[in-house]
Request: fold
Amino acid sequence: MEKQFRRFKKWNKLFLPLHKLRYYPPKFVLRDPVLEGVYQAITSGQQVAVIVINVSNLREFSQQLETNQLYEFKNDLKIGFKHVFDDSIYKNDLLVVHDYYSEGLTIFLRINDEKQSVVHIEKMLRVLMPQLEKWIFAKYPYFHHTFEIGYMFMERKQCTTQDALYLAQQQAVAMAEKRVQTRYIETLLEVRDIIQKREITLLAQPIIDLSNKRIKAWEFLTRGPKGTALENPLQLFSLARQSNLIYDLELLVLEKSFQMIERVKCVDDVFLNFTPITLGNKRFIPALEKLLDRHQNINPYKMIFEVTERDSIEGLTFFRDNIKQLRQKGFRIAVDDTGAGYSSLHTISEIMPDIIKIDRSVIQDIDTNRVKESMLKGLILIAKETGSLVVAEGIEKKEEAEVLKRNHVDLAQGYFYAKPGTLEKERVALL
Reply:
């Protein structure tokens, strides 16, 4: 009975409102160097993500083990994850692996690029989890296990670093441990409610023609309900993906985009970010056709669908056919994050995009890095081979812009030109 009460007390914290959580500080205390590392990551503009990896049948397995054997198993799990992590291309992302949570591991990561964080984590897990399973099976061949995984990004607003980590960890637990049905369903309903109530806002960032310094296009960016944790697109889209609502959310973004274009009478090109999950959905083209029927002022030749976030297009049965139909209707296709990894280069070879967007990891400090300028030149050559325009993302200073102009990059966007804002205000300010 006492054990059940302790377990209830532990899980009950998940269902308390945030203002009461201060009475329930986390049971684990991270060492000061780790907290300092997390703080430094945040203040330097990096994202911090919390991943919870549970062993779903650990409770049943633990009944077969002595206390010291269970401790050894959990320690081996921790060692195994660090081992596969250290041997991977993701080793620089890792802040710490913690095993305080009784069902498995809690992992803290730092991620440089906010825009790509969600898929970066999912891609990393697809690579590392099979290796971890293989590693565990080699040591415990009699243990048939499965993993439950959830993740959340740290949102630090008016609270300490440790409190922010704890709140993110609670969300990740709820996503991983779907047996905590109350919290999971609450999260699912929260995202679904946002979609049903259409509580998203679109911001616009101008894309500049470097030959004449005039606005050529706009990229629309999504924000959740203002003043909430889900205003942050990382939180919103990560929960939507884990709740299998990403298609519904992105379709809402498309409809809101059409409405905004008509409302402000925008005649410039518009870039819209979509995951391959949505572009490869068999329902996408019929849904798009219905929207075009309702918004007949929308000119498809002014619209660019941007394939985002390094997602693989492999295994998406309808993706290539949908891309073909989009082009037949006049829409153009862009590939995002070029230069950030293999998958974007592979996507270029597969779909021959009209526009290639060069990742900001290539652009950042390109004025002081000859290797990055060489990379830029190589990507421009690829664009010439495919007949693609080139857009450089993430320009933050004049010197970077001068390197782009020197290399005859077509278009550019970034804080150096303008931060995202409402399209109405941005158009007036830049006229």
